[in-house]
Design goal:
Aspartate Aminotransferase, domain 2, seven-stranded mixed β-sheet, binds pyridoxal-5'-phosphate, PyrdxlP-dep_Trfase_major
Length: 429
Amino acid sequence: MDYVYGPGRNHLFVPGPVNIPEQVIRAMNRNNEDYRSPAIPAMTRTLLEDVKKIFKTTSGTPFLIPTTGTGAWESALTNTLSPGDRIVSFLIGQFSLLWIDQQQRLNFNVDVVESDWGQGANLEVLASKLAADSAHTIKAICIVHNETATGVTNNLAAVRKILDHYQHPALFLVDGVSSICALDFRMDEWGIDVALTGSQKALSLPTGMGIVCASPKALEASKTAKSLRVFFDWKDYLKFYKMGTFWPYTPSIQLLYGLRTALDLIFEEGLDNVIARHGRLAKATRQVILFDFSCDFFRSSPYRKYHTLNLKCRIAVEAWGLKNCTQKEEWYSDTVTAVVVPPYIDSSEIVKRGWQRYNLSLGLGLNKVAGKVFRIGHLGNLNELQLLGCLAGVEMVLKDVGYPVKLGSGVGAACAFLQNTTPLIASRI
Ligand code: PLP
């Protein structure tokens, strides 16, 4: 039997790659085309314009690159920096670790600022480094907006504030792989110089397209940056942009049509509504896992007058009583939640059991948190009832592996929250 497709649906809750909407799958189900015909450049022009909206930039220049997030990292670094350049980079989990490894292998002089896994970037250290750098030896700040391994979201506005406070000219390079199109992201307002994402995350496309957006300052830096680059050289793209043909090499026609439809769906829902939906699904997930239930949704809910203290208490008692890997509320991620399991349980058993018994795909704990956490990805094309299916599955798996959970407890808590907060579907009003 095919493990993914039969019977019923696979419940894909890894934090990327994520579910692809049917409309996108259908849009991509087409023959190849001549990318030099007038049709593909015409479509590319609209894609380049529209993709800027998900970065919230008007001044940025986007590049749609046949690659993954890892290639997008390399594009950001090699186009803006020279070997030996000093950069400050925050290590808070597996993906920031991998980016730092790439930075070191590309021969940058990396000043690593490390935090415990579960914490956000240590911005006090950044401030002290910038304060001590009146000679401006630091050429770039590299930060992962949303660390997918631990479910930690860093505060990019705060980074910009610190850079401005010290009037420091370092480039601000941001990995938005598991944030862009799902979390609040404002490239222009936060003065981000290079932002990047991968198609398989919140855009809900297949893997294979890295989307990189460069500020005018980053484009300027690329004119003197000496890092060796060939495939990722922005210069080649810009040459073809000027000619109006757009592609220095063969794009995936199917992915371009997929991107067109993915963007249309996002704009139809409204980017702000997409972001709010991610917030809602993430809050529902957090409430289910937490023992120490935070009731802030009661305060913000338009239905608050209908809530009773009784309901609050019931949810608090009946949640699963597990810990969030993310150590402070200010870092909670709205795209992925890493759930810490008790020491007598191996979290990879939870992932294995979910897959074997319930056709549920959860994220493994990676590296330092392997065996200690499992991850629930709640990003991309996803709705409330899908999430409830996942939470029901996790509840059953927890019971399977010997964790004393009351079946229905977490799902009940999530239902109570979602029933109070889910808006009508805009297109059906
Ligand atoms: N950055 C983050 C935050 C990620 O979550 C990932 C992958 O999950 C990557 C970078 C690497 O992306 P890719 O696997 O597409 O190369």
